[in-house]
Amino acid sequence: MKFLIPLSALSFLTILSSCFTLKEGDILFQDIDCGPYCESIETVTKGYKGADLSHVGLVLQGEGGKLQVIEANTNGVQFVSIDTFLLRSSDAEGKPKVLVGRLKRKHRALIQDAKDSAQALLGSAYDPIYDITDDSYYCSELLYESFKKANGGEPIFDLYPMTFIDPEMGELFPIWVEYFESLDHPIPQGELGLNPGGMSTSPVLRIIHRYGRPSGM
Known about the structure:
The chain contains seven helices and ten strands. It is of the alpha+beta class. The strands form three sheets. The protein has a six-stranded antiparallel sheet with strand order 4-3-2-1-5-10.
């Protein structure tokens, strides 16, 4: 008779990592469960194969050659461990709701310079108003700017007019009205920007691995 032994989070991730190996420069797209804010982002832009994606980070080698994730969240631009990133959200089977994107061969030479650019931004403030022109950063903006600088000032990811309008109702999401009122800032409807869902469908990369199943897939 076989007995099923419950897996700890650590041993579970060890098994996951034995099936797939991350590389420096890989881009992690995450369906993170942060309530109405994430839901509205996921509603207006569907990701790869319909995935609901609301966060993104870049895999880089840290001290001692250990892989980490650099990301921009409400605490600013910072490094987090791979485990910390993967364990933030899980699907019905307890697997991380994360897709892995890898740049196509044409752009892989940019990874080292993008790494240097991203690390130079460590400690920068989070961008709460999604302004692509200022010196603070939201998650997808961090990757956009890092690879843009690595590519001699030419972006490899596309910007699109942002929308904060519920496509079903044809009106602004109430959550965003409240959010920008609290910041005393106009809603940047139509301003250029980008989000994780849109980035995941970029022609410059391929989605090569799925840890779990993000909602929508």
